[in-house]
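1st attempt posting a full record on here, be nice pls
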Amino acid sequence: MQKAHHPELGEIALTEVMGALSDPIRVGLVRVLADGRERGWGQLRAPVAKSTLSHHLRVLRDAGLTRTRQEGTRCYVTLRRDDLQARFPGLLQVVLSAMEIDDVGSQVGLRDGADP
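the predicted structure (as tokens):
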């Protein structure tokens, strides 16, 4: 597997971030990752096929919302909270609050046995 591309801080565009957040599955993934913990892709539960989940994770990474790390055959993902705060101060917190109020992405979570 080739190394994943992550946009540099100055390359993260608001239109790309907002576009990535236009899908409820991706919103749910951001909600799960908002606790700041790195998660293995296998820990994530979503009502989509594995290939579709992989696509959603790639969209989030390409937009600059997440960082993916590969370790052997396993992939791990984290939310780029500090980078997003530096680039767009306050945006992530506002979006997360709105997601919570509207219960967007609640169908995404962690698999049983994954840390809460």
